[in-house]
Amino acid sequence: MATPPLPDGSPSPEVVDIERALYRITYLSSRARQHERLMAAAGVPLDRAGAALLRKMADAEPMRPGELAARLGVEASHVTRTVQHLEKSGHVVRVPDPDDRRAQRIQLTDAGRQAVARIRETGVRGMQAALAHWSPDDLRRLATLFHRMVDDFLAHAADEDTEPTPTR
């Protein structure tokens, strides 16, 4: 059942509450101090850009820098600098693109995969500690609804990307 806006066109109070909660968790998870704690606990000395890039790459095949930038929603030059740092630290390598030998793709090394695994494991342990008092049923419901919400957000974003831009 859809949650329509109120008769005056304003969003429902539930949607307002969800937006506020999402803002709070996004703010908490994106704080520099929180990132530094996570990296220290994981034993991975990466900045936020490097960690984000490695996590994105861990869920995909090797990809071109431009494709990686698009998936991260950043400029290609940002990815180029981050990849250079990650190459120096041994987390990624450039490999030939099998579809176009003139191009290169970025690929995780074993060290990069191990770093992502430690970051994720540390993050999950922290989340487990924070939610330790939740019942298994509540955790299942949250996981189900959260995945549903993300899927709906992605579908909505895709719909907006395919809509024609109004002309004047």
UniProtKB/TrEMBL annotation:
Gene3D superfamilies: Winged helix-like DNA-binding domain superfamily/Winged helix DNA-binding domain. Pfam families: MarR. Residues 15-151 form the HTH marR-type domain. SUPFAM superfamilies: Winged helix' DNA-binding domain. Coiled coil: none annotated. PANTHER family: MARR-FAMILY TRANSCRIPTIONAL REGULATOR, TRANSCRIPTIONAL REGULATOR, MARR FAMILY. This is MarR family transcriptional regulator. It comes from Streptomyces tendae. The lineage of its organism: Bacteria, Bacillati, Actinomycetota, Actinomycetes, Kitasatosporales.
